[in-house]
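Technical annex, item 7. During the second reporting period the consortium partners agreed on a shared format for inverse folding records so that results from different sites could be compared directly. Each record opens with the tokenized structure and is followed by the designed sequence. A conforming record, contributed by the partner at site C, is shown below for reference.
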């Protein structure tokens, strides 16, 4: 087996997603240098942080956290890009398990009943072959023994992000994109909505509007990454 692995590595070297240097056997996705250098948010305060603050006055969220800080040039961007466009679903597992370890010590998941990934449209699903946030959600679900509801909230249209519109209009437009299929399953629950990157927050806001049609539902939010100063 080791021989086969060595053989394959000659032709398909395992490269760091951050710096493209070859990875050691013990390293996955990122080399030690890049993983030590990842911009991980402080995760100690669930309600008084920039992620939760970005939703003040927009939608009711119990608590929220993001794992990594995102900007157009950093390693987080490379991780998300590969996860999203290069079929690197292992990155979702890698980050999901890492994030789970950190969440275990801060009890964020203690009162959560279910995980809901932000859905993508079925046409995009067909083209890409997967929802980029599913492996991340599955890793969280397995780590905390919490179910992942992948077909409760669906995306019925595929509008592109409309950066020219103001925040209110954007939220109104995207709102119509989501469809809550199974309201009864969510009644009286506390769910965590999970997205890859939160930038304007319009997608989360729109999902919440649709989800909050459910009686006595509480929503919290997690994301792999958050764009600061958006
Ligand atoms: Zn590296």
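Designed sequence (site C submission):
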């Amino acid at each position: 087996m080791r021989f086969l692995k060595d053989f394959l590595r000659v032709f398909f070297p395992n490269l760091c997603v951050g710096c493209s240097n070859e990875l050691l056997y013990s390293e996955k996705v990122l080399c030690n240098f890049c993983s030590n250098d990842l911009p991980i948010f402080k995760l100690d305060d669930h309600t008084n942080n920039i992620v939760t603050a970005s939703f003040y006055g927009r939608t009711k969220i119990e608590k929220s956290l993001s794992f990594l800080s995102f900007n157009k040039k950093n390693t987080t961007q490379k991780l998300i890009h590969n996860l999203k466009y290069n079929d690197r679903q292992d990155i979702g597992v890698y980050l999901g398990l890492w994030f789970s370890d950190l969440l275990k010590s801060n009890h964020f998941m203690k009162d959560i009943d279910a995980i809901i990934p932000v859905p993508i449209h079925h046409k995009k699903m067909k083209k890409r072959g997967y929802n980029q946030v599913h492996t991340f959600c599955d890793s969280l679900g397995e780590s905390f023994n919490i179910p992942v509801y992948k077909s409760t909230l669906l995306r019925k249209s595929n509008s592109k992000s409309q950066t020219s519109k103001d925040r209110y209009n954007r939220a109104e437009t995207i709102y119509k994109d989501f469809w809550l299929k199974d309201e009864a399953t969510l009644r009286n629950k506390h769910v965590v909505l999970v997205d890859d990157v939160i930038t304007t927050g319009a997608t989360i806001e729109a999902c919440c509007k649709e989800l909050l049609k459910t009686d006595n539902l509480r929503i919290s939010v997690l994301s792999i990454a958050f764009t600061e100063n958006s």
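The chain has a mean pLDDT of 90. Residues 39-227 form a domain with the Rossmann fold fold (CATH 3.40.50.2020). All partners now use this format for quarterly exchanges.
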